[in-house]
Amino acid sequence: MNKSRTSIISVAREAGVSLQTVSNVLNFPERVKPETAKKVLKAIDKLNYTPNLSARRLRSRKSSSIAVRVDSNAPIGKGSDGLYSGYIQDEFVYELVRASEMRGIKVFTYTCELGENEVEKLSKLMDSGDVDGFILTSTVEADPRLKYLLDRNVPFLSFGRPWGSSTEFANSYPWIDVDGASGTRDATKMFWELGHRRIGFLGWKTNNSHPTTPKSVAHDRLLGWSHAYSQLTGVKTKNSNRVMCELGDETIASARASTARLLARHPDLEALVCTSDTLALGAQMELAHLKKSIPVSGFDNSPTSKVFNFSSLDQNISEVASLALKVLMGEEGNSIRKISSPKQISEPNLIIPPRLVVR
Amino acid sequence: MNKSRTSIISVAREAGVSLQTVSNVLNFPERVKPETAKKVLKAIDKLNYTPNLSARRLRSRKSSSIAVRVDSNAPIGKGSDGLYSGYIQDEFVYELVRASEMRGIKVFTYTCELGENEVEKLSKLMDSGDVDGFILTSTVEADPRLKYLLDRNVPFLSFGRPWGSSTEFANSYPWIDVDGASGTRDATKMFWELGHRRIGFLGWKTNNSHPTTPKSVAHDRLLGWSHAYSQLTGVKTKNSNRVMCELGDETIASARASTARLLARHPDLEALVCTSDTLALGAQMELAHLKKSIPVSGFDNSPTSKVFNFSSLDQNISEVASLALKVLMGEEGNSIRKISSPKQISEPNLIIPPRLVVR
DNA sequence: CTGAAAGCGCTTACAG
DNA sequence: CTGAAAGCGCTTACAG
Question: Inter-chain contact B129–A93, Cβ cutoff 8 Å?
Answer without folding.
Answer: no
